[in-house]
Amino acid sequence: MKPKVFITRPLPEEVVEPYRGRLDIEMYPEDRPIPEAELASKQGEIDALIPMLSEKLGEEFFSNTSAKVVANLAVGYDNIDVTAAKKHGVTVTNTPDVLTETTADLTFALMLTTARRISEAEDYIKNDQWKQWSPLQLAGTDVHHKTIGIVGMGRIGEAVARRAKGFSMNVLYHNRSRKEAAEKEFGATYVSFDELLKQSDFVVCMTPYTKETHHLFNEEAFRKMGEHAFFINTSRGKTVDEQALQKALEEKEIKGCGLDVFENEPISADHPLLKLENVTATPHIGSSSMETRYRMMQLCLDNVSRVLTGENPITPVT
């Protein structure tokens, strides 16, 4: 009998079909978060689970599941209690590497869109407001030759730094440890968190979410950035105190921000940050290109296949 795999969203059949010969794959048929009760009803009859970030898996799940592997369809895994998984002998995997360049593209695009007021300009012309040319019409801020401060110089942070060098930017970074290879390749300078905030024109959050990074960007951090600076976050929403960010934007303590992630997702149109003109927002689409999302799906299925046949997974969470 083939191992049973449950996927909490419908994936394209062209991705799943090549694996059906060795795996019994069932997918939740609706493209929305699976109800907790329905997921609970599956947990004792599966060999593997492929969840999304919206599925929160803790002690209750791992103490009652028959799954041997949980392959998270994301690089982040703060939705999974990895300690509980290990305690109950469940392997957890994620999808690093395959989304690095795509997320870096989105990060840089968000930075450019925010600085050059592209979303405002698009609304301006679509709302038939363009009636004349004037010297400072929708004037934004240059990105080239400015200073970018990257908080979290992991794979994606390095990919952002590589793009920044193409714009002749000065690259600063703060990380738990120095990355001498990145310093050599990008001419990046390692600085303290405080120095990065004070010196950067663009502060880019690339750090994963942990207890230590919870609300790392708070009222004090935004105050140190200064009125010339932009804040960009394509990492995790809970690294930011959104009330402090709102205050900093409303009181012009910082110039603007670009956000792909929020503390509690999804958000609604009445979210207070969306009401501010100096905010550019996207709905957590950092890795959302067709090519990358397909590779992420395939990596999850490859990890599941390997674990269920007694092999080591390609990308285990350790």
UniProtKB/TrEMBL annotation:
Entries under InterPro entries matching the protein: D-isomer_2-hydroxyacid_DH (IPR050223), D-isomer_2_OHA_DH_cat_dom (IPR006139), D-isomer_DH_CS1 (IPR029752), D-isomer_DH_NAD-bd (IPR006140), NAD(P)-bd_dom_sf (IPR036291)
GO cellular component: cytosol
Annotated PROSITE patterns: D_2_HYDROXYACID_DH_1
Record keywords: Oxidoreductase
Entry keyword annotation includes Oxidoreductase: yes
Record keyword rRNA-binding present: no
Domain D-isomer specific 2-hydroxyacid dehydrogenase catalytic: 5-317
All residue ranges annotated as the D-isomer specific 2-hydroxyacid dehydrogenase NAD-binding domain in the record: 108-286
Family, per entry: Belongs to the D-isomer specific 2-hydroxyacid dehydrogenase family.
Record protein name field: Glyoxylate reductase
